[in-house]
UniProtKB/TrEMBL annotation:
It comes from Alkalibacillus haloalkaliphilus. Binds 2 magnesium ions per subunit. Mg(2+) binds at residues 10, 12, 172-173. Its cofactor is Mg(2+). Keywords: Carbohydrate metabolism, Isomerase, Magnesium, Metal-binding, Phosphoprotein. This is Beta-phosphoglucomutase. The gene is pgmB. Substrate binds at residues 10-12, 26, 45-50, 53, 79, 117-121, 148. It is an enzyme of class 5 (isomerase).
Length: 229
């Protein structure tokens, strides 16, 4: 049976749920600018890079349409400073259920584990979660020229491992992330609703359902062998 050579995990929404902390930090910034955002809007920011997220928020208010790049960078820094403060509150207890066991099983099988995140705080978050030693390689926003949905975040990790893309499995919770995995020609595992992730090649509702054997079975049925045909 063909086994994958690498698993590449998204961070926010797969390993831990930092989306709420991003939301709180963006909300405080938006409030200070007189812009209202809610959790529904926050869904649109999942997997989206820092500056692009800021642009989406500013686009809600026509009065903010001509801010200088310098001002935008200052706003993004203000949000990030607050977000990093909030990261001080997370610990191993914030690892999403099922993830620790899954990482352990993958490693026991001798399969490489990579992180593919749009966050420049990825290493910091993994350290707070005490998971840094479980990852063989980390790709964050600072290492790629094009963020998700471009495949570069995922192909960068596979290239580092020296493995074929079809031998990799990417696990993602954001629609743009699943698109990135598919565009990389890897096998996509989506964590979320069928409505949000119709393009995931294998999908679970939440991380508790991320079972190694089931993922491998799906990969062997629909992944590498199907793509090789
Ligand atoms: C992604 C999050 O992982 O990282 C986004 O889903 C976030 O919400 C993006 O905007 C960038 O994160 P950071 O930490 O570099 O601002
Ligand atoms: Mg995510």
């Amino acid at each position: 049976m063909i086994m994958p050579k690498a698993f590449i995990f998204d961070l926010d929404g797969v390993i831990t749920d930092t989306a709420e902390l991003h939301y709180q930090a963006w909300k405080r910034l938006a409030d200070s600018l007189g812009i209202t955002i809610d959790r529904e809007f926050n869904e649109e920011l999942k997997g989206v890079g820092r500056m692009e997220s800021l642009e989406k928020i500013l686009a809600l208010d026509p009065k903010q349409s001509d801010l200088s790049l310098e001002r935008k960078e200052a706003l993004a820094t203000e949000k990030n400073d607050h977000y990093v403060d909030l990261l001080g509150t997370i610990s191993e207890d914030d690892i999403l259920p099922g993830i620790t066991d899954l990482l352990k099983t993958i490693r026991q099988q001798g399969i490489k584990v990579g992180l593919g995140s749009a966050s420049k705080n990825a290493t910091h978050v993994l350290k707070e979660l005490k998971l840094i030693d479980q990852f063989d390689y980390i790709v964050d926003a600072a290492q790629v020229s094009k963020g998700k949905p471009d495949p570069e975040t995922f192909t960068n990790a596979a290239d580092h491992f020296g493995v074929d893309y079809v031998e990799c499995i990417g696990i993602e919770d954001a629609p743009s992330g699943v698109t990135a995995v598919n565009s990389a020609d890897m096998f996509s595992v989506g964590v979320g609703t069928a409505e949000a992730l119709p393009h995931a090649e294998y999908r679970v509702d939440n991380t508790t359902e991320l079972d190694f054997d089931s993922i491998i079975q799906a990969y062997q049925s629909f992944g590498v062998s199907a793509k090789a045909e």
